[in-house]
Design a protein that fits this description.
Oligomer: single chain
Low-confidence stretches: none
Structural class: alpha+beta
Strand order of the largest sheet: 2-1-6-5-4-3
Largest sheet: 6 strands, mixed
Number of helices: 4
Distance between the termini: 22 Å
Shape: globular
């Protein structure tokens, strides 16, 4: 199997648009965590958000009230999923920590079916406690692709 990369493509002058190396590293690590279904990974996922963050996944919306709502959404995302592999392709910075991203994700469901799904996301990055975190994260993807998995 070829090695997998979580690195995305950025505009050549992305530093001028406010994409610091720490934000690039954040997203590479975030998608590695996203692809791990352990309870420890669920906690790390929730820790990727600020204390007052908002997470929107389709119709699911959570505010980070003691991480409980984000953890609930996160655990629900793994309810029928055995494995997932994100391939973030490009990040489009708008300055001041705001970015749009897109890529694809490969799901293997617990019943053995699989699906490849394109996604896009909008994120607002915040420097909190010496670390980059998301203050807002909204994911756009076609949930019907999971229902039509083969």
């Amino acid at each position: 199997m070829a090695s997998h990369s979580y690195a995305s493509e950025y505009p050549v002058d992305s530093k001028d648009l406010g994409v610091e190396e720490g934000i690039k590293n954040f997203f590479e690590n975030f998608y590695k965590i996203s692809d791990t279904g352990t309870e420890e990974a669920h906690e790390k996922y929730a820790d990727s958000f600020t204390r007052d963050a908002e997470l929107v996944m389709g119709l699911k919306r959570g505010l980070d009230v003691l991480k409980l709502e984000i953890l609930k959404i996160r655990r629900g995302l793994w309810e029928h999923v055995k494995e997932r592999l994100h391939t973030p392709k490009k990040v489009f910075p708008f300055g001041d920590g705001e970015v749009m991203l897109y890529g694809d994700v490969r799901y293997v469901l617990k019943d053995g079916r699989g699906a490849d799904v394109e996604w896009a996301a909008r994120a607002k990055m915040v420097h909190e406690g010496g670390k980059w975190k998301m203050g807002f994260y909204q994911v756009y993807l076609d949930s019907a692709a999971m229902q039509n998995a083969k």
